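User: I'm curious whether this sequence folds into something compact or stays loose and floppy. Could you predict its structure so I can see for myself?
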Amino acid sequence: MAANNPAKDRARPIPEVVLKAGDPLLLARLACAVEAICRLPAIPVVDWCDRAASAVGHLAPRGIVGVVACSLGAKGVIQTILATGAACVGASIAEVERAAQLGARLERLAGQPWTPATLSSPAGVFIPAQVDGVHQDVWESASSRPVLARHVACGGQTPSLLVYLQTNDPDAHVSLLDAVMPVLMRRVKHTVWPTRTNGWVSPSEHGVLDQLVLGLSVREAAVALNKSPHTVHDHVKSLHRKLGASSRAMLVARALGHPVPIVDVLTDGVHQ
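Assistant: Here's the prediction. I'll summarize afterward.
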């Protein structure tokens, strides 16, 4: 029997499937996307938008998803961009590479309206080849397929989230995308976002926080992560500052997405 070739398997594209109301496959995709969104970190990890794009990508295999966390002006102009991300689930290697390049290109949308000035349909769909300027430059490099555009606005200090889904069949996916937007909005609202004083949580800090959520002490986390207690202690101090948590219990609550108030934190006296 011939051995499997993982690279060849990844290169084999997954065919598009036409979905109909009540189709079990539709429900399965929706369930996978909702589950993935609910598992998004409630803390500002640097790849949050990439993870969000992967979660939404469960709706449309071979679709390219772009996510932008930003602030919007009064007229819907994208102002400060906090982060961008992109993903393509279950696609060929070439499509995955296009999605990876899209994440960086999305940063060019700063100063632009969050969607092209004129959408080609009431459902919020635009065709890259039919729009001008930056949007065409960003999306035609990915492909000329139609793009669904959606917007999550939570108000207050929480950033807006722009979600783009590029797919061959927007009519089949528009209802799926609309169905998960309230779930995504709730997750965005319960996520701590970086400010001028509180930066992004590093992968090392995230690893330490995962151990604290499991109930480990600083010393126990150091053993589990093969790090020195001093290094882990410094990570915990940084986490208290970045997540606005004044106690270990509040830090864990933040990690789990519970809406506890952010406070000014002194980084001394971290519990051992």
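Summary: The CA atoms of residues 81 and 254 lie 23 Å apart. The first helix runs from residue 6 to 11.
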